[in-house]
Amino acid sequence: MTANRQPETRRSRPRVATTGLAAAVVVAAAILLAGCDSPSILRSEGSAGNEIVTLAVWIFGILAVVLITVWAILVFVIVTGRRRREEDASQTKGNLRIEIIWTAIPAVIVTVLFILTLVITDRIDMPARGAQFTAVGRQWWWDFDYRELGFKSPNEIYAAEGRRTSIDIESADVIHSFWVPQMGGKIDMIPGHVNHIHFVPLKTGEYLGECSEFCGVQHGKMRFLFVVVTPEEYTAWVERQQKPAAEPTGAAAVAGKKVIGSVGCGSCHAIRGTALKGTFGPDLTHFGSRSGIAAYTLRNTPENLLRWIQDPQGVKPECNMPNVPLPLQQQKELVAYLEELK
Ligand code: CUA
Description:
- About 30% of the residues are buried.
- The strands form 3 sheets. The chain has a 5-stranded mixed beta sheet.
- Among the domains are: about 1-125, Orthogonal Bundle (Helix Hairpins), CATH 1.10.287.90; about 250-340, Sandwich (Immunoglobulin-like).
- The chain is of the alpha+beta class.
- The chain is built from 8 helices and 12 strands.
- Dinuclear copper ion binds near residues 137, 140, 215, 219 and 222.
């Protein structure tokens, strides 16, 4: 008998070790991820984000207590059970009181988690009213349309610190998902349906936004910048954006304006104040004022813009911007013109 039992004891040890190792890996991963540079929901700077962090901390805390309790009981049972095995191997069966207790405790825990989630979801999800602008998801960029103010600011949003930002959410093609991790929850962008999201940005700064629903090959390169500024700076930004495109001043930029009018860019792009009226691609009226190119795939520098104009399909394969073969001179003039559109 003793010889038969021996392997059982040995088998149970690695199993406990494996569970412990898996837990250690999860904890280590959580610590590493919390420290990395990508935006973390745990570093919230928005009203809705703060609610979500509160919920996450509560749930994590409750589940940590459950986990530690279960592990403590497990260790206790393994240690004492091994000692007593020889003399007492009886099972707990038909003990009504214990059965009620171990059914009631999980029921209470699940109910508490459910109520917490319900209360916080309700606080975040107030009915939307008075959206400042519409966010339209496209493959693979963001059309931020300030319809009432008369301008578009593709791939870059400005919002005023401490003021409610309310956004209508739409899609022009497939399902995308609007998400600024440090502001709050994500919301799906569904073709033919308008969703809403709102929150109060609490601290000035630049926050990365991203698409959170797989929407095709360039889903990973569908990002935008959410810039929180003071209310005064916000008003100044709106006034600048409402103006039509600036007239170019430099010689190269003046030549670039002629080039852009002659090579067909206007079939997709608009530049207010010029003959370019396309709506399929991003509005370029104030292109030079933006921080990123190609849905924040590249920083907006003359070198990166030249690279993008020369080979959009190389930078972002399968995007809707075609490679337009142009002499280098004209490419550089285009860059000079676009960068002057502040
Ligand atoms: Cu758009 Cu993923």
